[in-house]
Amino acid sequence: MKLSKVGVIVPIYNEESTLGNVLLQLYYCKNIDRIIVVDDGSTDQTWHNLRLFKKIDRLKKINLIKLKKNSGKGNAVKVGVKFLDKYLDASFNYILLFDADLIGLEEWHIQRMIDDVKNPGISMVIGLRDKGNIFLNMLMPYFPLNGGERAFERGVLIDIIKSPLIEGWGLESVMNDYCRKKKLGVSKIMLNGLDHIGIQTKKYGIKAFAKEVFDVINTKRRLIGMRWN
C-alpha cells in the first residue's frame, strides 16, 4: 500500500472537444490514484461524454460530480476538494488541479508536477503552459501566474478553499497570495508542448472574458493587506 496517494480534481464547463485527451492522460498516469471530475453545469455534451468514460473505468479511478448550475471554477474546485477530504482516506497527501481545455497534455507533464510537489519544502507547483516562443517562456515565471495546472500539499489546498475570494475567477490569485504571504515553497515548471484553447472570448464570448478580467482585478484588490491566519 502506498504511504501517500495523489488525487486530481478537474473542473469542467462545456469542454466536450478537449476533455477526452485530458482524462485519458490522467487516467493512465500510474501515479494518479483518483480523479474527481466536477461538471460545473455544462450545457453541451460534456456530461454525456463523462458518463461514457465512466462506463469503461475498469481501474475505478474516477468520481463524477454534476452541479446543477454553473457557479464558477473556484466553487467547482472547492466541491472537488471537499469530496476528496470527506469520502477518500487521509493517505491522499497530494492534490493536483488540471483544466479540461488543455491541448497537448502528456503523461510526463503530469508526472513532473507530481515529482516536484513531493520535493522537501515545496507546497505548490505551478505548471507553465508553452507559449511557443522562447522569449515569452523565459519571461513568464516573472509575471503574475493564473494557469490552472497546479499541485499542492493536501493541507495547503484545503486551507485555501476556505476563502470566499476563490469564487468566480479569483482562485489562482488567492492561491498565489496565500503561498506568498505564508512564505511557502513554490515551484514553477515549464510544461513544453502544453497549451490550451485560449482566452474566454474564444470559448464563451466577450462578456465572459470581461467578467474574468473584472474578477481577477477585483480579487487582487481585495487581497491587498489581507492576512492569512
According to CATH, the homologous superfamily is Spore Coat Polysaccharide Biosynthesis Protein SpsA, Chain A
Overall pLDDT score: 89
> Can you name the CATH architecture?
Alpha-Beta Complex
- What is the end-to-end distance? 35 Å
Bin the helical content.
25-40%
Determine the number of helices (DSSP H or I, runs of at least 4 residues). Answer: 9
CATH class: Alpha Beta
Q: Oligomerization state of this entry?
A: single chain
Structure description:
It is a single chain. The protein is α/β, with parallel strands linked by helices and 229 residues long. It has one domain: Spore Coat Polysaccharide Biosynthesis Protein SpsA, Chain A (Alpha-Beta Complex). The chain is 40% helix and 20% strand. It has nine helices and nine strands. A seven-stranded mixed β-sheet has the order 3-2-1-4-7-6-8, with helices on both faces. Strands 5-9 form a two-stranded antiparallel sheet. The protein is globular. The N and C termini lie far apart (35 Å).
Secondary structure blueprint with pairings:
Elements: E1 5-12, H1 19-27, E2 34-39, H2 46-55, E3 62-66, H3 73-87, E4 92-97, E5 102-103, H4 107-117, E6 124-129, H5 134-139, E7 150-153, H6 154-160, H7 171-181, E8 186-191, E9 195-196, H8 200-203, H9 206-223
Parallel strand pairs: 1-2, 1-4, 2-3, 6-8
Antiparallel strand pairs: 4-7, 5-9, 6-7
